[in-house]
From TrEMBL:
<keyword id="KW-0732">Signal</keyword>
<dbReference type="GO" id="GO:0016020">
    <property type="term" value="C:membrane"/>
</dbReference>
<dbReference type="InterPro" id="IPR005318">
    <property type="entry name" value="OM_porin_bac"/>
</dbReference>
<comment type="similarity">
    <text>Belongs to the outer membrane porin (Opr) (TC 1.B.25) family.</text>
</comment>
<dbReference type="GO" id="GO:0015288">
    <property type="term" value="F:porin activity"/>
</dbReference>
<protein>
    <recommendedName>
        <fullName>TonB-dependent receptor-like beta-barrel domain-containing protein</fullName>
    </recommendedName>
</protein>
<keyword id="KW-0813">Transport</keyword>
<dbReference type="Pfam" id="PF03573">
    <property type="entry name" value="OprD"/>
</dbReference>
<dbReference type="InterPro" id="IPR023614">
    <property type="entry name" value="Porin_dom_sf"/>
</dbReference>
């Protein structure tokens, strides 16, 4: 049990630390004492009263982050099960008179890569869904409503090469509200997460660890995603079709005189149907 200001890592409430300064939280959190790789069952029971956005110096109520004037925190309950490459879990987030967000995920590592000492090709498949709806007095703008974002992915890896593909779909009634962390969608990218109402999206990424070529600690990743949907000024703020290209180079030597050093450079090319944008970002703490 941890009481006070702290980092919390869950699918919907998390640090979102891609810009070095993480989102931090204030409250009480109960989790298992042993959270090692052999942990079969995980759980969380928490009530967080406030959070600090990345671009603010003060902690504010969770309801304020959603534009609701009354002072409300978030109640978090969740559990997950992990064994033999199989993972299943769910978490619920309740903010009184404002919003309830429920998250579920199922993920499976296929066993055919277990040969050759576990160094053979591996394939992981998964699906998740985030259900979000107004509750109680429904004081949030646009209430009452209910919406969702569902996504699915595959991850194939072999000899340091990783190929990932993902698709996502957001409900037509409203966009996903997520000021408390990075998107849980598998199609989420560094700039956009395609969470606007009625948006469909896909993502493809390829990464390589150059350790097999003798360059320990050198990694490169390229990802491309695209989202499209109907422009609606009420439900999604006149969303315009978007696409994004992310390039990431990382150097983090695991041993030797430079152990502990991390150099990371990211290049982002984001384009909507009306506005192009390019950015160089360096360094970051590496939200994956």
């Amino acid at each position: 049990m941890t009481v006070g200001r702290q980092i919390v890592r869950t699918p919907y409430v998390n640090p979102y630390d891609s810009r070095m300064i993480p989102i931090t939280f204030e409250g009480i959190v109960l989790v298992p004492d042993d959270q090692g790789p052999d942990q079969t069952v995980d759980y969380i029971a928490s009530y967080l009263t406030r959070y600090k956005p990345r671009n603010q110096a003060n902690f504010i109520p969770f309801s304020e982050g959603l534009g609701v004037p009354q002072d409300e925190g978030v109640l978090i309950t969740g559990a997950s099960y992990h064994k033999n490459g199989f993972n299943i879990g769910g978490t619920n987030y309740w903010i009184a008179d404002t919003l309830n967000t429920a998250y579920g995920e199922i993920d499976y590592l296929l066993p055919f890569g277990e040969g050759n000492g576990g160094r053979g090709p591996q394939l992981r498949v998964g699906a998740n869904i985030l259900d979000q709806r107004t509750v109680g007095a429904s004081m949030i703008a646009g209430a009452p409503y209910e919406t969702y974002q569902a996504s699915a992915r595959f991850v194939a890896s072999y000899r340091g090469l990783v190929l990932e593909g993902a698709v996502s779909k957001t409900g037509d009634e409203a966009s996903i509200q997520k000021p408390f962390g990075y998107s849980a969608s598998y199609a989420g990218m560094l700039v956009t997460n395609f969470e606007q109402a009625g948006v469909d999206a896909f993502l493809l990424s390829l990464s390589y660890d150059f350790a097999r070529l003798g360059l320990d600690g050198v990694k490169f990743k390229a990802a491309f995603g695209k989202g499209w949907g109907i422009e609606d000024p009420v439900t999604n703020g006149d969303f315009s079709n978007q696409q994004e290209l992310d390039l990431r180079f990382v150097y983090e030597p695991p041993r030797g005189a430079l152990q502990g050093l991390r150099v990371e450079v990211e290049y982002i090319d984001w384009t909507s149907s009306t506005t192009p944008c390019r950015a160089m970002i360096s360094p970051s703490s590496g939200q994956s």
